[in-house]
Amino acid sequence: MPKCLYIETVGCQMNLLDSEMVVAALRQHGYTVTDNVEQADTILFNTCSVRQHAEDKIYSALGRLRRLKQQHPEKVIGVLGCMAQKDQALIFERAPFVDLVVGPGQLHRIAELLESVAAGAPRPRMAVSLDRRDGPLAEIRRSHESFDPLRDPTMRPTPFQAFLRIQIGCDKFCSYCVVPMTRGPEQGRPPEQILEEARLLADQGCLEITLLGQTVNSYKYRSGEQMTRLADLLERLHEIDGIRRLKFVTNFPKDMSRELLEAVRSLPKCSPYLHVPLQSGSNAVLHRMKRGHTVEEYRDMMAQIREMIPGAAVSSDFIVGFCGETDRDFDQTMAIVQECRFKNSFIFKYSERPGTKAAERLVDDVPYETKQARNNRLLAIQNAISEEDNRAFIGRIVEVLVEGPSKVTMKRADTGSEVQLMGRTHCDRIVVFQGSPQLAGQILPVRVRDVTAHTLLGER
Ligand code: SAM
Ligand code: SF4
After folding, report:
1. How far apart are alpha carbons 109 and 148 in whole angstroms?
2. Less crowded by CB within 10 Å, the N or C end of the chain?
3. pLDDT tens digit string along 193-229?
4. pLDDT at position 387, please?
5. Which DSSP letter does residue 158 get?
6. From the CA of 387, how far away is ligand 2's center (Å)?
7. What's the rounded Cα separation, in Å, for the pair 244 and 161?
8. 230 with 193: CB under 8 angstroms?
9. Strands 245-249 and 273-275
10. CB of 250 closer than 6 A to ligand 1?
11. Where are the beta strands (DSSP E) in 305-429?
């Protein structure tokens, strides 16, 4: 009997990639994939625990399955990813009908774990990595290693774009962040494995590869005397035929090196796009966040980017309402956003995470309404800047990698010889224009005729 899998993924690109690998592994074991949860006999949630809200959503989604599980006890329900690693047995307490909990470092075992549950192994089953204080470093590292070269083209953002993990874990320990606990110690993946996977992706028709790491520009891999860094990796990936664009996220400000910027400048396949979260415009807040950089250092890094790669798009993340953030601190964040002119910023309201230094030592003292108001104000100013800077594109011709029908086309279920298509420029700006759906997967010149804060409106 073919087994039928439903998988729901929340969170970052790392999670999307993990889900792709889980699906690839399970297809090899005879699973088919459905988007109808009622039809599935295996239901998996790949979860995120960066903010409370993401966890709440998963617990309510699980709650909605309670009845289904009562009616069909043979169905297997599994919780994967960061929340599985963070909450572990607590998940069984809050949702006793869950059969399986698997942390991100144990996902390579998913097929075997599901098989054992199906074969009648005692439920629930749990497979998680070691805690960061649970033994010798080498053992902890191994327990988080989940490199798996299996890929599944159907699970990608589009057939022409793929994520490629070059690093797992994080050693930065920003005081608000749960990732160093859920994803374990930072480990660079061997360059040969990365190159081999990139060649496989190119053979499968990928034009664009986005390299993933929590602090991707800190990537390093030592083999004997030889140290490989991200700039070296980009040079080698650049030689692979078929690949047309290379991106990498997320960058850590302190580790942005001249060599890396030099590589981005000199390698035409490297997108002139850098996501480098600043988090706050106040040195006092950055210090409490344990970010390891000041506003002045970030400003120097920006100046270097602007000097070496003129026209590069830089984007950022911000947390508003972090412990002790005053109106003055927030005004400084508003000011730096105006000064840096980011292409876009992801803005988050601070959410206290158990187990982090901030939760242990600082008070989450900014009221929710203040966080919300600051979020709105920062977003408004960022949107105004994005729109202003996008206006410079009006009348210009941009090279667009066409991803396929736009959201509007999909929503309206438009068919026909010409629909609204969506793609991205080399500097990661979204472009929509009318065209044949068959243009998907091509890199085309498009003239920009108008803009919004988030989109260039083009024509051919
Ligand atoms: N490693 C990346 C970095 O350093 O930017 C991304 C990590 S995290 C998944 C993505 C973003 O979530 C962070 O840049 C931060 O802005 C936000 N974030 C992390 N922890 C948070 C928390 N406790 N509350 C609110 N936002 C948070
Ligand atoms: Fe979290 Fe900081 Fe690591 Fe990013 S660099 S994953 S924010 S601890």
Report:
1. 10
2. N
3. 999 999 999 999 999 999 999 999 999 999 999 999 9
4. 98
5. B
6. 29
7. 10
8. no
9. unpaired
10. yes
11. 313-320, 345-349, 397-405, 419-424
